[in-house]
Give the backbone structure.
Amino acid sequence: MPFFTKYVTNVMGFAAGIVILGLTFITVVDVTLRKTGGSLPGAVEWSEVLLVFAVFLAFGSAQVTGDHVSTSVLTSRLGPKARRMLRGVAAIIGIAAVVVMIVVATQSAMNSIAVGEYRFGIAQVPIWPARVIIVVGLVVFLFEYVRTTVRQFRDPMDEGAMNSELRMAEAALEAEEVNRNES
């Protein structure tokens, strides 16, 4: 396992899990207090900001494990060369899109830091840390996206390079065969 993946991406994925536990705790406490006639002040505001942490800290980890949402509607019926070419085009478009997102998110984060942006409600919750995490998460995702794409193109049969799209294509073909047998 590459150093960056082991010590950055996986640690961020673990941190996302801790944030989700924190969100769960906040929700349970808030719901419990609401049943007794009260509420946890700022629960909604903190939950909104922490949800951003949970999502963007886990982006790179989801790429490494192939857990991002994907579909094989187009690629499952293509031959190996055409599938590889289509994936290459999709990867170039995807990388360009992520770079644009990083640029826009960085500008937004810098502006948020400069003005000390807060989420106003029952509690004042700073938003700028979440905006910074968006940038960090996108950068880590981009690194892992490029790394896994390059690995997949170097050795398309490498088990580690197989992503969820290939698993889904196999499952779709199996389901289609089951449907034919049932008819």
Q: What stands out?
A: The first strand starts at residue 118 and ends at 119. The beta strands are 118-119, 125-126.
